[in-house]
Amino acid sequence: MYGWTFCDRRCSCSSLCPGAPTIYYGDEAGLCGFTDPDNRRTYPWGKEDHELIAYHKELIRIHKEVAELMNGSLRIVHSEGALIAYGRFTRAGASLIVINRNSYALTRDMFVKMLGVPTECIMRRLIISTKDGYRSEPVKEQVSDGLLTLQIPAMSAQILRYSSVDHLTAEEFWKKNQIHFGEENPFPGSRVG
After folding, report:
1. Closest listed residue to residue 85, CA positions, set 116, 102, 118, 110
2. Per-residue pLDDT reduced to its tens digit, 41-84
3. Quick one: 136 exposed, middle or buried, by C-beta within 10 A (0-12, 13-18, 19+)?
4. Prediction pTM value
5. Are 161 and 95 in contact, with CB atoms under 8 Å apart?
6. How many of the other CB atoms lie within 10 Å of CB of 4?
7. CA angle 150, 154, 159 (to 5 degrees)
């Protein structure tokens, strides 16, 4: 079993690149297998890594729910040794995938404006995996002057997202988009009735 030190970064990358994600038999359970005769070991029934299975399910959920991960364009944002960051984007949203294979943490500025992200906005981290497992609670990260400054843990993979559609809370949306039905005409210059 190879667990978190290898599988999560490989799965993050393959699940979030263009094309259909592929999971080789047993990868979701932490089954190792590289070359013959290890490439076809039996499934580890009763010995599965249940957290790794949950991680795969979470990646699949994110892939299904985030449109740009299914059909968006791809652009490399940052590449430096064992660190790569690339974006998947459409007109409505952009996701940044950051994979650090280094054995040490890094802080880097990512120029996310090239993905269509506004100069000043919030990106939400959807998921992060490290050698200790994964977390999927949303964390907000500030974009300033088109740059996202990230603290990147050692041996990690993460997905951050900006959406022009869902970045407002329901309360913020309705505050800016109120429609008044009554005697006054909400649409000046138009005919009512």
Report:
1. 110
2. 777 888 888 888 888 888 888 888 888 988 899 999 999 999 99
3. middle
4. 0.76
5. yes
6. 20
7. 50
